[in-house]
Amino acid sequence: MTDYVNTLSNSSIANVYFMGRWVQRRFQDTPIMYTTNLGAEILFQIEDSTYFELQTILPDLETPQTLSIDIDHQLQLVSLDKATIRFELNHSHSHLIRIVFTGNTDADDVWQGNQGLAIKSIRASKNGVLHPIKPNGPLVAFIGDSITAGCWVRGSHPSIDYGADINYAARLSQIFNWEDYRIAYSAAGILRYGTGGVPAAPRFINYVDFNITAPAINPSMVFINLGTNDKKFEESLFQPFFMQFMREVQAKFSSSKLFVIVPFDQTHVESITSVSKTLDISIIPTKDWNIETIDGVHPDVNGSITIAQKLSDFLVHHQIS
């Protein structure tokens, strides 16, 4: 269970903590906190309040986005089919709140259509008090595709069956009390573009959408799990592009410890291993991990638990955490 500590607000919305890849921007002439990344979170403690209210600006979507709302470690999934949602509370004691952007769909135009998650406000009832909190550990970044984002973890229905809150990155972060910073998009790779208009990884690590530059961060560690979606590209093409990408990651996160997680289906394992060794980057082999999946590719709940435990074992064995 994650150990939380008090912290400072880090956004235009007072008294809460935005964890992950958020940016402050204006939309429809309104200041908002905005993200295109599943796994982005909002954390706070609330006291003396009979409710808290979350106000969003909803994009025009066929299938609503999904939030995971964790109140005192009791989780519920909420489809964002209305802009304002109220959650009732017992005002006689304080509550720990964790909100995760856990589901969207491949049809959401997150890159050019402003169809990410837009948070307008979070407020308590009269006399209620909010306090920002965060995990008591370092910031750790995860760069990847739909597996790292947390797509299709709970089942085969888009958005509501996604699980950015319970996938391997979320679970590993909770094991070590890390501040989980997700940089991952569905279907994307080193060469392949993702869904929702998202470009390949060399572009998306530097931008939140087509014109918003990503915030600068200084993570303690960075985990890279890419290549699964580059299956159709020959090794002779993939390898130099992967080399170039990893050099860029090294330069961008020059003070961070880097780990390359081999694609769980072993796609481009030879090139990925060779490049990682050449650049002296730690590589985490994943062969024979026996990961349960929804569809032969995407880990399900049990598969996510397996991956998190295997990664935890690797880090403990190498005395890294």
From TrEMBL:
UniProt cross-references to Pfam families, sorted A to Z: Lipase_GDSL_2
Domain SGNH hydrolase-type esterase as annotated: residue spans: 142-265
Originating organism: Pediococcus stilesii
Protein name: Lysophospholipase
InterPro entries found in the cross-reference section: SGNH_hydro (IPR013830), SGNH_hydro_sf (IPR036514)
